[in-house]
Amino acid sequence: MLSTVRRWKYQALAVCSALLVVACSTGDVTQSESSDPVTGSDPAMEVNLYSSRHYDTDRALYDNFTTETGVKVNLIEADGDELIERVQSEGENSPADVILTVDAGRLWRAQEAGLFQPIESEVLETAIPESFRQPDGLWFGFSSRARIIVYNKDKVDPSELSTYEALTDSKWKGRIAIRSSSNMYNQSMVASMIEANGLEATEAWAQGLVANFAREPEGNDTDQISAVADGVADIAIVNSYYVARLANSEDPTDQEVASKIGMFFPNQDDRGTHINISGGGVAVHAPHRESAIAFLEYLASPEAQALFADGNNEFPVVAGTPLNNEYLAEFVDRKTDSLQAEIIGKQNDEALKLMDRAGWR
Ligand code: FE
To answer: Which domain holds residue 201?
Structure first.
């Protein structure tokens, strides 16, 4: 159900539109949100969502918003950096209302490109922990994912695992799989380590990790998990939802892979496991600003938060969200790094250069 505040906003919008009022008492309803004098349609009742989330289950999330509010979601999908380039090239004429993407590093890039406008929302500020949102209200994280270690249960005892830092130990020589340094998830993990340990120590760490690779980086996170299940490597670093997706899959092949794999959350005795977010904000030239804010507030609602976990095996960011996902529920109390997501983004450049110097292809 919509909160009273949001319901009020919609009632106010409906009145504004009906009266063809240019500026009304909600303060930020613009002429573009008045009803179309030709078609009579109500453009305030739609939101143009630019998303680079690559998960099929998101459609249920958006349909649910439409059912609740009557606001139609026009979905435009593109890969992370393509999405940013598209909004940039559309400039002031961009129809984008909401930009959703994955990884704090990419949210930061979009922020640097000036694609977001700041918003104030008590709903979002109350629901979403500070470390998961940009301090000026430019973007908000709606789900989180941990970058964990997976291990082959036949070859590795979890007691051998401890921290990301310990993966440079020579006992892991030729045993680690991980995707390439062009992958944002890895850049953000390295960014968090620069914050924790400094540039020099992190560069030495990256060199040590590269020295222990089982193979040249190739494929995505699912491919790293398969490599561990198949014995190509003994451990891998991947995002948690890829493992949970295989474990919760109905496909016997996926279940077989998942049955061979254990999940380990590193750094429990210090800063906690590195986590990242998927999130978004209101586009700088959003034609439907009010609908955009309502959409973001919906993403922080209990039902949307539950859908992130049920649909895509991500962790909800709003405390107290009931977790129906049994596989994830087992890990929900693990300690995670509380580093501010924006800092992960700010360190992206340094992280990328460092990985390059360390020979991480
Ligand atoms: Fe992913």
So the answer is: 145-274+335-357
